[in-house]
Amino acid sequence: MNAKKKTVWFEVEEEETINDCLQRLSAAGYSVAGRKEEPVFQEVDGEYVPIRQIIKFKGILIE
């Protein structure tokens, strides 16, 4: 028996568009139920500078 998790977070990869991630989520059998963004910081000269944004989509298993 190959049971999938009911909810999974899909992260937009660095070389991937948001649309690519949503297509991957859909192809895996999930629908979008939420989105969150997290900043990534790097220390430059003693200060933390944002370098990119991590975007994640919450997928709910389609039954």
From TrEMBL:
The record's section on Pfam families has: NETI
InterPro entries, per the entry: NETI
| UniProt name for this protein | NETI motif-containing protein
Look up and give the organism this protein is from: Sporosarcina luteola
